[in-house]
């Protein structure tokens, strides 16, 4: 697999191209790889924004 979007150190996201290649190579679904990337991105954002979210975003008090 010469083309990849993730360097293993969190430097870049897994691209759709890489998702398809990994899926075929390992026999796992495309959704597995997309979900893996999404979970990583979410956890990274939580860590990065940990203290700021409470200060910058108020909880919506109305009803939906």
UniProtKB/TrEMBL annotation:
Record has DNA-binding as a keyword: yes
Signal peptide boundaries: none
InterPro entries, sorted: Lambda_DNA-bd_dom_sf, Toxin_antidote_HigA
GO molecular function annotations of the record: DNA binding
Keywords, sorted A to Z: DNA-binding
Protein name, as recorded: Addiction module antidote protein, HigA family
Organism of provenance: candidate division KSB3 bacterium
């Amino acid at each position: 697999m010469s083309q990849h979007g993730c360097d293993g150190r969190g430097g870049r996201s897994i691209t759709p191209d890489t998702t398809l290649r990994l899926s075929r190579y390992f026999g796992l679904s495309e959704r597995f790889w997309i979900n893996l990337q999404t979970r990583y991105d979410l956890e990274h954002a939580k860590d990065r924004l940990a203290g700021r979210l409470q200060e910058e975003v108020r909880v919506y008090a109305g009803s939906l």
